Amino acid sequence: MLNIYKYFKPKKRKGLLIISSIIFSAIIFCSIKFCMSSKTERDISTEDKIFVENISPQENKINYNLKENQNANKQNKEKEKNKNSISKKEESVHVSKIKKIDEDKDYTKLYPDLYCNRPSEQIVPSKTIFLTFDDGPSDNTTEILDILRQKDIKATFFVTGNATPKGKSLMKRIVDEGHTIAMHTYSHNYKQIYGSVSAFLEDFNNIYNLIYESTGVKPTIFRFPGGSKNSFNKDNYIEIAAEMRRRGFDYFDWNLSAGDAVSRVCTPTQTCINNVLGHSKNCDHGVVLMHDANAKVTTVEALPSIIDGLKSQGFNLSKLANEIDPAPYSLIKPYR
Ligand SMILES: [Zn+2]
After folding, report:
1. Quick one: which H or E segment has residue 182?
2. How many A from CA of 222 to the centre of ligand 1?
3. Which of 28-32, 169-173, 200-204, 305-309 has the lowest mean pLDDT?
């Protein structure tokens, strides 16, 4: 290569040497830089390499944040794990405490706010019927409320734990339109609620709080899922009823029914009407069992005829309250 220089004049040779030195230095510098960046790439995981190869500076920032988030998630999972083991310990302490309460039958230790004042009893006038709807709120509740408003009738809704915004707003509408809102347990899970007195109280406390939170009203009456005496609670229904009554809460069964819950298939509309009107004509007063769960469309269809039929039989339609004696409608005799 040095032989090339001899073709240039001595003055030009000097300049050419300087340019060559600069080019050579630049090549060396680039090679070192390339080696260093390759090393960085080899040191990071495949997942991160994808980020390095394909992303803009802005995306890089996002991916950095993602990485940060992944790390934070890992830490959160660890914390959650620790928390779970603490809450499992708390749970087992809670379970043994409840077990002891059930053994001692000392329910006064549970839910100190779950009480209501029992007002003095009101005489129910002759020829009074109370329409009641269980298992809502659902879309059918909306239609039932429309019918009741149109017919200017007040009724009673035994609600379950529908804590969706729509469920809560329907509970509020029930109250705002002057009906009675009452409890039918939160879960409506027979095995769970009838497992023990304290299990019933726990569920009852949940529905009580949901109603209060949704409506601002503290409910005072309830209905046992399946009625006050059924095959799931035959061993403890007296105990549950006694504890609820000690707390001031009365329950209502029924002496008339639309028969809209006898099977999973909808009872025909005309059968619902006949079931109520066929038996009500022999009553002086009564509580009618109906359902406003989602599937009960024929109940909605039957309701206007049931209301008109009861009116033409000379009945006043009213709503239940804690001051009404539930005994005449109870499935348990004697009630108290
Ligand atoms: Zn029910």
Report:
1. strand 180-183
2. 11
3. 28-32
Q: Tally Cβ neighbours within 10 Å of residue 6.
A: 8
Phi-psi map region of 251: left, alpha, beta (phi>0 left; psi -120 to 50 alpha): beta
pLDDT for 65 equals 45
pTM of the model: 0.72
- Report the separation in Å between the CA atom of 226 and the middle of ligand 1, taken as the mean of its atom positions: 6
Distance CA 237, CA 244 (A): 10
Cβ–Cβ under 8 Å, residues 276 and 240: no
The predicted-structure confidence for 92-129, as pLDDT tens digits, reads as follows 777 777 787 888 888 998 999 999 998 888 889 999 99
Residue-wise pLDDT for 31-42, tens only, equals 555 444 443 333
What is the gyration radius of the CA atoms in the chain, in angstroms? Answer: 37
Residue 278 CA to residue 257 CA, distance in Å, equals 10
Owner of token pair 């729509």: 166
Cis bond upstream, residue 304 (ω within 30): no
Task: Output the six-digit token pair for 117.
Answer: 């004042």
- Do the Cβ atoms of 51 and 60 come closer than 8 Å? yes
* Residue listed under structure tokens 């998630």: 73
- For residue 232, report the distance from its CA to the centre of ligand 1, in Å: 13
